[in-house]
Amino acid sequence: MPNPVIGLLFHWLGGLASGSFYVPFRRVRVWSWETYWLVGGFFSWIVAPWLLAGLLTENLTTVLQNTPGSTLFWCYFFGALWGLGNLTFGLTMRFLGMGLGMAVALGYCAAFGTLMPPIFNGEFFTRVLGTQSGVVVLIGIVVCLIGIGSAGAAGISKEKELPEAAKRAQIKEFNLRKGLVVATVSGILSACFSYGLAAGGPIRELTLKSGTADLWQGLPVLIVVLLGGFTTNFISCVYLNRKNHTGHEYTASELERENKRVAVPVAANYFWAGLAGVTWYLQFFFYSMGETKMGEYKFSSWTLHMASIIIFSTLWGLALREWKGCSGKTMRLLFLSIFILLVSTVVVGYGNYLGTATSTH
Predict the structure, then answer these.
(1) Measuring CA to CA, which residue among 144, 133, 135, 141 is closest to residue 352?
(2) pLDDT value for 173
(3) Residues 131 and 352: beta-carbon distance below 8 Å
């Protein structure tokens, strides 16, 4: 049964997981980016989806075997495109840091991922613009984009104020121009995850018919979409392993860094990378739960997800002192963005509540 308040809570939990996942990666030592990204991704895209879907849904393998091939293809295809965006998202974090990187990438992702499904399904002018509740939801989406823009403005203001040495002390590979290009590509491609979820309707129907509770119906869809993401990330990371001669890092107890041998905490690296991967997956675990509670306008789940991710990633950026040394003006912009994003989640939630109330009368 739809309950936008509960749905909003689930989306916030998903945003917390997504906004936090990169933190454990900071504990990985000595490994190259492509190595720890692939290890974390294996837990994100293979282990966690199968494990939780297997525990919480009924007849999982039978459901997937009976799913039409076209459905599996589109879920996988959009997942593969999203995988490219996810891959460049990691690069965005490297070049821009958690605060600015997530704001720019997720701004594009929010706009494309939220609005394209109802437009593609021919429902935008009827169910969205044609109803009061739909208009309220749309206003909330616009408010969210304004909040994302404010977060981006805060990041640009920060970049102008901090000396190069300070920026690189906080983000070692900081590069604004390169980071903005990568973030743009990442955001647009990352929106394809929303399309993959939308294409998984037949899987949800089969899952419900198999006796699975309504709350868990989206978990089998995640398996297929994330398999596509794993494919593109696996190919890219293995390519980088070969190109950079880093394939031995997965098992090496010592590596050469700056002309000296350095001990590698192999077990700890696997633990932290795996924890980052599982944390990342939890964002869509909670997302799939929240979507089932949003009622008529479940497409707005994507906006709620993006807003909560930016809020929590910004808070992590503050905790990790990425904004240390910024002026009062920049910090006011940053806190204004958090406030606007909070308002957007309330507006979107209220629009969903209106839609639910209308449909029950």
Answers:
(1) 133
(2) 63
(3) no
